[in-house]
Structures are given as structure tokens and as C-alpha cells.
Amino acid sequence: MNNQAIMEKALTNVKAWFEENEQRIVEVSDQIWNLAETKFQEFESSEVLKGVFREFGFEVKDNLVDGMPTAFTAEWSNGEGPTIAMLGEYDALPGLGNDLVPRKSPNGKNGHGCGHNLLGVGSMSAAISAAHAMEELGIKGRIKYFGCPAEEGGSGKVFMVREGIFKGIDAIVRWHPINITYVDMSSSLAIVSVKYEFHGKSAHAGTAPHLGRSALDGVILTDIGANYLREHIPTTVRLHSVITNGGKAPNIVPDLAEIWYYIRAPKIADVNDILKRLDKIAQGAAMATETTVTQKVVSASSETLPNKVLCERMMVNMKRVGPPAFTEEDYAFAKQINEQLTEAEKAGSLRMFGINDPAWGKKDLYDVIYENMNEGKITPYSTDSGDVSWQAPMCQCFVASQTIGSKNHSWEQVVCSGMGIGHKGMLCAGKIIAMTALDILTDPDLLAAAKAEYDKVLETNEYVCPMPADMIPGAQ
Ligand SMILES: [Zn+2]
Hints:
Blueprint: H1 3-35, H2 43-55, E1 59-62, E2 72-77, E3 83-89, H3 116-137, E4 142-148, H4 156-162, E5 171-178, E6 182-183, E7 190-199, H5 215-229, E8 238-245, E9 256-265, H6 268-289, E10 292-301, H7 308-321, H8 328-337, H9 343-348, H10 385-388, E11 394-400, H11 411-417, H12 420-442, H13 444-460
Parallel strand pairs: 3-4, 3-5, 5-11
Antiparallel strand pairs: 1-2, 2-4, 6-11, 7-9, 7-10, 8-9
Helix pairs in contact: 1-2, 1-3, 1-12, 3-12, 5-6, 7-12
This protein binds zinc ion.
């Protein structure tokens, strides 16, 4: 049987599996939505996922990384063959909890404002349905799901990369909920998040200022230096800061102060170069103010390396599966969510993907497939999946799981992640990932071409883990 014929059978098989298990998948997703555990605290969420994997005959391994008990892997093998990796996330965002109504109604809890309940469970359903199809159709190989904690500012996957957890995989297939459906070939920005803590001497600011050495002065001089640095760095670099501790009261010379930077650039090598220069500025500021400074990197991740060969095949499978099947109820709910938005605001939310048709401003759900993969573009966000993409050829897609006009990290995404709109996106993504994995497993030439492309990129780009060797999970 050629690959095309196998994939036809695979599509029938995967669709049937989803039909049979749809209700269960949605229940698991809603369970994790309700738990809404934040980074490194995903104890119950990871247990729920592990339980489902065990039930479907996957071998679960945990305690993989010291200090990160919510990381795990779940694998299933059908004999000798390539290993396809799927990535799961399940962390929520602090304070974003919202009632399940189509308007802003904070409930004081944490919330799935990035849809990671959908992400984790969608990839889980992909892994289990792919394993089922492999068994039924006699497809050899291995499916390995990586349960990855703390995507939100915790760089969970980078710790897993540093520990070698991703060794031995042949390809990676991932997705993320967003407001359109497409295969994403854009890269992300590399990032280092770094804190500088200054220590000085406190004194009465009125009677004995000459005895004080202000830690806040060190912080302020550092930021002035950083402003001058901005003129002499590539225009593609973004440097943002907040002062997280500036002292207690104006009449006390602060003996402790802290400033926190994000350095972002298209290449991790540029980020690391600017980090060294920022370190010098902080040291100079310490010398000038007779204070001392300690530097601590709190998270870091590399840019994404998209694999064109795999992305193109993922698009084939996205078309086989089709866009999310939203219902009338979903459209009505979306309309209510979008009540406050103008048509221009809705259409404008799609511009970052290169979608410029103002007609989208009249709609509330993106219900087709966008075929432009944005090859060569850089989307201005950072993700710890970037580091995973350096471990093997990776393809990724975005699937509409929220309204046109809504953004990630918003109440709109929280609400959509817990109801029909998000469910449809998740079920669609699960099928696309399963189909792409089965396609890679049954087409050795495809995998060879993907690996050749990946090897060529690595010939001129060495992967260096951006995280200091002594950094521990959750230390920020
Ligand atoms: Zn996310």
C-alpha cells in the first residue's frame, strides 16, 4: 500500500476514534480548565493526563527533572520505527479566571488564558488516536508525548532539553490555540529574562545621607545605561524592564533594589551578546554607586526553527481534516463575546498573520484554513518550544480556538477554552497532529528530507542551551 492509500485509511480510523472518544476528551479538557493550576503547580492536571495515558496502555515516566515533579512522558510503541514527539502544556495564568459567560466576569481564580488545557488534551488525544491507528493499520514506530510544565514564564521545556529528555526523537508535531487556523512557519523571538539585584547601605536620608549607598541608584543608573545601549544594538532587539524593588520610603536610603529585564531578539546568539553588555552596565553602575550587584537569569528560550518539509506535509493533513466544525451555538456565543469590538478591531487582530481582508471584521470565528505559512517571518513572541525545535525537525500549527478579535492571555481566551469554541479547535488540532504523525511514520522519504533540511540548518547554527547550568526550576 502506498502512503496515499494508507493515509486515506488513517483518516477514516482517526475520525472514527475521535467520534467515539470526543465526549471523554472534552471532559478531560474541562477538568484541567477547572483546575487552572499555574506554572510548576500543575500537580492535579498532570495526574489527570497521566491517568488517561495509562488507561490507554501508554507507558508513563515521571520524576524526570529535579525540582519539576509535574513533567512526564507517556509513550506507546508498535515495534521498530521512528519516534514522533507531541508536546503537552497544562499551566494556567495567575488571576485570569473568568466565569463561563460571554463577557468579562473575573472570578478571582487562576485561568486558562492561553488555552493550555486545550493544548495539553488536544495533543494527548492526538497521541492516543495515532497509537490506535498504528495498531489497527499495522504502522510501526513510537509515539511519545512530553508533558511540559510551566510554559508561562517558567521555561519548563528548556529544563527538559537541558536534562536530555528529548533525546532519541525523530520529529516533533505541535500546536497552539489561537484565533485562526494555519500551519505556522514563522519563527519566534529568543529571550533571556534576567534580574539585577543591588545591595547598598541604608541610612537616614535626611540626617546621614553621606553614610548611605543607594541600591536604587544602582538600579536607575543601570536603566540609564540600558537606554544608551539601545542605540547600539540591532533594531530587531527588544529590551524591556520593570523595577521590582525600589526601596521602602523616601527617607530611607534603600539598601536593596532590583530591576528585571527581558532581552528578545531573532537569534539567541544576539540575546546572549546583549546580556553580556547589560551585565557590564550593571557592574559599572555598582562601581559608580559603591554598591554590589548580583545577576540572575530567571528564564531563557531560543528562537523556533521551523521545518519546511514537515510544515508543508502538516498543511496537507490540515486540509484532509478541515477547519474546526463550529456550531450555531458557538457562532452565537462568539458574537456576544465580540459585542464591544468594532469591525476594524476584529479585522486588525488578524493582521499579524498577514490577513488583511477587512471582511473578517464582520465575522466572529475564523472557520477556514489560512494557507500562507508565513515562511521567513518572525512573530514577536517567545516560547520554550523554540528549544525543542532544535532537537529534531519540528512542525507546528495554530488552530482557531477563540474568537476573531481576542488575544491570548485574555478573559476571552479563558472563556473560549472552557466551552464549545475551544473544544472544536482542540478536536480539530488533535486530528491534524495524529494524521501528520502517521504520515511521517509511513513515509520514510518525507522523514529523510525533513532530517536533511534540519541537519543543513544545524551545520551553521550550533544549539547552546540558553539556561545557566546551575539554574533550577521555579527559582524566579
Ligand atoms: Zn501558550
